[in-house]
Amino acid sequence: MAVRLRTPLSEEDVLNLNAGDIVHLSGIIYTARDSAHRKILELAERGELPFELDGAVIYHCGPVVRKTSGGYEIVSAGPTTSARMNRYLKEILSLGVRGIIGKGGMDAEPFKGRAVYFAFTGGAGSLAAKSVKRVLDVLWLEELGIPEAVWVLEVEDFPLLVAIDASGGSLYR
């Protein structure tokens, strides 16, 4: 089944998805790799997170970025291996995150009843970049560097595959 969704995702949105569904995602997503996950959890614990994660989608991605006169342009936005972020998964989902995008899969159990894992093809970063309409913000750029910073992206019709659904279905088994 093919579905069009817009962030923020609702509980109903994710509970209606099944492993194998194609999703065209539009709205705001946040990139985050290892260092960004640590920073997000540290700030959330102190109540100082500078953005709302309720219904959010996090993309495991360290984009290639070009500075322009008007801000930034995403040149390539391929996924990074999500398994590295398994150690942060339960805490990240407890912040209200409803979707994770990456490659290679993650532990399925934490997604049950609350979120989905979307797969995007590794090696297709330029295709992903075509779905990025604009960079809305970047957080912790100086501290973490380009690939590890949190990039706030507006995407349109980002083509994704539901690889782990909220009822425990997984394409990785």
From TrEMBL:
SUPFAM superfamilies: FumA C-terminal domain-like. Keywords: Lyase. The keyword Lyase applies. Coiled coil: none annotated. GO terms for molecular function: hydro-lyase activity. InterPro entries: Fe-S_hydro-lyase_TtdB-typ_cat, Fe-S_hydroAse_TtdB_cat_sf. It comes from the Archaea. Residues 2-172 form the Fe-S hydro-lyase tartrate dehydratase beta-type catalytic domain. Belongs to the class-I fumarase family. This is Fumarate hydratase.
